[in-house]
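Task: fold both queries, return tokens.
Query 1:
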Amino acid sequence: MQNEISEFFGLYCRNTDNNFKSAFFSQICPYTNRPCTKMRKSNPQTKIGTCTVRFQGQEVILCPTRLLEDKLIFQDCVSLLKKPEPDDQVFLVPEVKIPGGHVDYFLVSVKGEEIKDFLGIELQTMDTIGTVWPARQMFLSKQGISIKEEELQSKKTFAINWKMTMKTILLQMHHKSGTFESLGKHYVLVLQQTLIDHIKKEFNYDGLKQSDSQNYIHIHSYDLSEKENHFKLFLRSKESTNSAGIAKCLDMNKMPDVTLPSMVSRLCQKMKGKTQLPLF
């Protein structure tokens, strides 16, 4: 099954009525109305613009900014703030540093000049192994955009780096959850349902239950539905736990598939016919 790009600067790639050429030249992200922040390392002036890819038959979001559609993810967090009064205001504050790293967003409830409540929101989408660039260039060529011939001949492809992404976000959650729990404030991880599915297979997910405002650590999962020739973000589930639940999640579900004899056998196989480096 061919892996390909599904969204280009927010445009649904299977809708041939979209003006991909205009998006290619403007390089504007539709979710921020600013230039795309994902750039080629070899040419920072070129924005990649690949929001979502189709991998092994499912849509996988690569860019965290793609989760900002209609501010839905923030609206779904408002209920975790202390009950607002009519003249309260809610502000969105990006990139705040705390012990353990930065938090993508803070949702802050304000009355006059006084902060009444706040919560942290973390976004996590998928990383790739390999490069999406050849698939992007092949797509653009089919849209009548001039692409270098050597790029169209490239055999390079991409896969999804499930394992690294899972470990990275769970460690981040582990580091930061204790901070929010000690403050008595909520902390929300926003991700795609397919990543949740992989975490459930590889890690101990027993500590997460149906969303409960008494818990301070929350996971909101989202997915994409196809509507009127474009993708629409929608909420799939809300779950919650505490810092102990996140720590438990880092325990692998599967026991290590190795024994001492099998390890010795592997070493013997690797050493056959090899020239070893002397230690002394």
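Query 1 returned. Query 2:
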Amino acid sequence: MCGKTAAGLRLFPDASAGDALHAPGAMVARAVEDAGRRLHDLQREEWEDGALAAVALTLAIAASAVRPELALPLFFGGMFVAGRAVLAIWRRWDLLDRLLVERDAYALREVRGRAEHEAGTVNRRRLSRTIRSRLELEDNPRVVANADLLRALADELVDPLLELDPACAVACGRLLTDDLGSPLINSELPAEDVRSRLFQIRSGFHSGD
């Protein structure tokens, strides 16, 4: 099965709600609920700080004509708040990206929607092209050793009669692009993990209704 459960994982490196969980069930449900709340809070920070920055910068432009002495303070204040908005955007993106590999987090609409997007036709075609380009290069011994499974996966990704489990689509993307966490790319990880990951990903295909 692609994806992991949230038990025993740190979802929030910057908050106490992300302390490691040691039991499934209610503890996992609480972690997912906290994750949803954190995503919402970060989105609110984006909107509020972004709106405040826009107001401050607009006032800075206006002040440059009528009260020049206020222009610079307003400008720097607006830039500071804009920086906070950018930080909130990054933190929200980072949290969402980490939640994508937690199957329990798919109970959150935003996480599920992002995963379903990765399982969509456009992204599947992109993943298929990535696989084929790696096969053409043939400079990675792990790619060569698993060429049969990679070719089969590339074909399945573009097969319109097959649907792909969203968690497995996420796992496929990680396998092909994650420099640190992918055993296909990172030679310090066990080579045998490549084949097991490919079998897990391909197990996520099923015929559409």
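Both queries returned. Flag for query 2: Residues 26-66 form the longest helix (41 residues).
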